[in-house]
Amino acid sequence: MASTLSEESQFVVDLLTTLRHEKFSPMAWARFLARSWKMSRQTANANPGLKHSWGRVSLALSMLALVLLAASFGLEGPAIALRLLPGVLFCVVWQINDLYWHLGLNRQPQTGGLLPIVGVANFCTQLRGLGASYLLGRLVGGVPTPTILILLIFLCGIITDILDGQFARRSHTQSKLGQITDGEADFCLYLAVILMLIQHSILPVWVGILMLARFLLPLLAALASYFLLAHPVHFGSTVWGKYAGLAQCLYFLILLAPTQLAEITRLINLPLLLVTLALMIAAPTAQIVANVRQASDQGGGKPRPYPEREKRTPS
Q1: What does the alpha-carbon distance between residue 56 and residue 100 come to, in Å, rounded to a whole number?
Q2: How many CB atoms lie within 10 A of CB 160?
Q3: What is d(CA 61, CA 130) in angstroms, rounded to the nearest whole number?
Q4: At what angle do helices 176-199 and 147-170 cross, to 10 degrees?
Q5: Which of 83, 135, 165, 203: disulfide with 192, CB 3.0–4.6 Å?
C-alpha cells in the first residue's frame, strides 16, 4: 500500500510539473484535468465497495437536496424554489463530484491502506457541505434568507463538525479525504454565513473581509505551492486555530441570536469581536511557524506521517 501511495503521489507531482512547464496553457489544463479524472476513475473501478459507498452517499445527498427544495417550494412558493434551483443544483453536483475525485485519499494515516467505504464521519462532513450548498444557492439566486434559517443551518453545521471528528476517531477512519472535505465544508459554510450577515447589515463589511481572509490566505498559499512548486503546504489544526474558530463561531451565534436576547448580546458583542480578531491574527502566525518547523524536520530527514483528520472546534 505504501508503494502504491508513493506511486500516486509521484503521478500527481509529474502532472503538476508538466502543467507548470507548459505555462498553464488551456491545453495543459485540459490534459491535467483529464488525467486526474482518469486516475480517480481507476481508483473507483478498482475498489467497487468504495465506489458503491460513494453512490449511496451521493443518493442520500441528492434526496436531502430535493427535500430542501421541496420545503422551499411549499413554504416560500414556486417562484423562490425556481430561483434556488440552479445554484443549489450546481453546488450539490460539484460536491458529489469533488468527493468522487478525492476517493483515492480515503486512506488510513498509519498504513496508507484504502478504507473500503466513505464512512459515517465523511457523511457528516458532506451534510455540512449540503447546508452550505443550500445557503450558497440562495445567495446565487438572489433569494433573501431569514436569520432564523441561517442560524438553524449554522447550528446543524456545528453539530456535524463535532460529530465527524468523534466518529472518525472512534471508528479509526481518519483520512486525508476527511481532512480535505472538512476544510472545504467549513470554508463554504462560513463563506455563505459571512456574506449573508453582510447582506443583512449585521456584520460590518471590513470584519467580514478579515474573516474571509482567514480562510482565503491559507487556501491561496496552498494552491500557489501546489500548482507553482508542485509541493503541498499543510494547514493543519493548531491550538490557536481552534481558539480562533471557537471565538468566531460564538461571535456568529451572538449575531444570529433572537431579538429577545438583544440586551445580553449587545454587551458581549464588542469584547467577543476584539478577542476573535486577535485570535484570527494569532492563528495564521502559529500555522506559519508550524509549517517552518515541518519544513525543517523534513529537511533533516525526519519522515512526517500521513496527515490525520483532526477534530477541530468549528472554524
Answers
A1: 12
A2: 25
A3: 7
A4: 170
A5: 135
* Residue 107: strand pairing partners: 114
CA-to-CA dists, residue 222 to 84, 98, 190, 215, angstroms: 32, 18, 19, 11
Cell 414556486 belongs to residue: 78
The pLDDT value given to residue 11: 54
| Burial (0-12, 13-18, 19+ Cβ within 10 Å), 290 | middle
Look at residues 19, 4, 214 and name the one whose alpha carbon lies nearest to residue 114: 4
Mind listing the pLDDT tens digit for each residue in 52-82?
A: 999 999 999 999 999 999 999 999 999 999 9
- The amino acid at residue 56 is R
Rounded (10°) angle between helices 262-299 and 205-228: 20
pLDDT level of residue 275 (50, 70, 90 thresholds): very high
Average pLDDT over every residue of 99-127: 89
28: exposed, middle or buried (C-beta count within 10 Å: 0-12, 13-18, 19+)? middle
Nearest to 119 by CA among 97, 140, 103: 103
Q: How far apart are the C-alpha atoms of 3 and 237, rounded to whole Å?
A: 27
Mean pLDDT of 165-174: 89
Please answer whether residues 152 and 93 qualify as being in contact, where contact means their C-beta atoms are separated by less than 8 angstroms: no
Mean pLDDT of the chain: 83
Tens digit of each residue's pLDDT (9 = 90 or more) over 123-158: 999 999 999 999 999 999 999 999 999 999 999 999
Contact between 206 and 150 under an 8 Å Cβ cutoff? The reply is: no
